[in-house]
Amino acid sequence: MTTFGIGVDLGGTNLRIAAIDEEAQLLEKITLGSKASRKRDDVIDAMCVAIQTLAKKYSRHGKLAGIGVGVAGIIDLRSGMVRGSPNLPGWIDYPVRAEIEHRLKTAVILENDANVAALGEKWLGAGRDYEDMAMIALGTGVGGALVLNGRIWHGMNGMAGEFGHATVEPEGPPCKCGNRGCLEQYASATAIVRIAREAISSGRGGALNKAAKSDGGLHAQAVYDLAIQGDPEAQKIFRQVGRALGIALASMVNALNLPIYVVGGGVSSAWELFAPSIFEELKRRSMVYAATAPARPMNRRSGASARVKPSPAARKTIIMRAVLGSDAGLFGAARLPMMPQ
């Protein structure tokens, strides 16, 4: 009989639940909404109904190892509380784990959403040949995670890896976290829209202005589409994304000296547009990267065939796009209960 886990990925925009077996086969995935307009108890109720549905359906064919839940925000692992979540308003000091366990009548493993995405990439994706890695997840906000010796590095109380709130511009725009100039203010989907609106307001919008007035409105995908089509202002926005990521990664590389840094999340689909700016900044700002850069940086879209296998003799610093895409968090969350605790 096979073993399977149920993984939950609760982000600022979407709630997704999946059953995944120990061989990494995705058995079924359910996608729901989690936008701020929905009350948190309604979101938790919908999540638990989906978990129960999948557990009942697949327990006929295998053994349920447990339930892993990745949540956007700062998580206190000991208490199971969401201490703060800029992209989930109203969830501050909310006892997420207790609320889920109360409804399901069973234990669950709670994690930060970027941590589970990194665990998914470590299990099956870009980091599977490495014991140590860092990940930056670009979505509604910007998350981050560290994996050391094959396991998530939580820090003192589970709040390690908040790379999205590292300062890249000291006097930059205010962030919901209370800081100014956070990476999240330049490299998230929300930031892309904000920068585009600023371009429109300053009279530099051009095609962006037309997109904002269209039926679909202005969103990150629309800015990406314009950039691919050659619009200079849209392309400039993604160069800003890359510059901010390069600044943040330069500090990470200098401080951590890890073998691989993975960029994932929905915004990473624009890798070809912003990656060149990442490597430009890294070469200028990180002495460690300058000394350990591979001959050919991973500028292109990465996939299973493009993965870089480690060479102990080479000891190069690899910066690359995640392999699993938006499903990384689901795989990592489902993997949690299948790992030795």
How would you briefly describe this protein structure?
The protein has helices spanning 40-58, 96-104, 113-124, 184-187, 189-201, 207-213, 220-228, 232-256, 271-285, 287-292, 328-335; strands at 2-10, 14-21, 26-33, 62-71, 74-76, 81-84, 109-112, 133-138, 142-148, 151-152, 260-264, 318-321. It is of the alpha/beta class and 341 residues long.
Radius of gyration: 20 Å
Class from secondary-structure proportions: alpha/beta
Reported by name, the CATH topology of the largest domain is: Nucleotidyltransferase, domain 5
Number of helices: 11
Strand content: 15-25%
Q: For the record, give the distance between the C-alpha atoms at the N and C termini, rounded to a whole number.
A: 22 Å
- What is the CATH-assigned architecture of the largest domain? 2-Layer Sandwich
Would you report the number of β strands? 12
- Which word captures the global form? globular
Total tally of structural domains: 2
H/E order of the elements? Answer: EEEHEEEHEHEEEHHHHHEHHEH
Uncertain parts: 300-308
- The share of residues in helices is 25-40%
What's the pLDDT, averaged over the residues? Answer: 90
Strand order of the largest sheet: 3-2-1-4-7
CATH class of the largest domain: Alpha Beta
CATH superfamily of the largest domain: ATPase, nucleotide binding domain
The profile of the biggest β sheet is: 5 strands, mixed
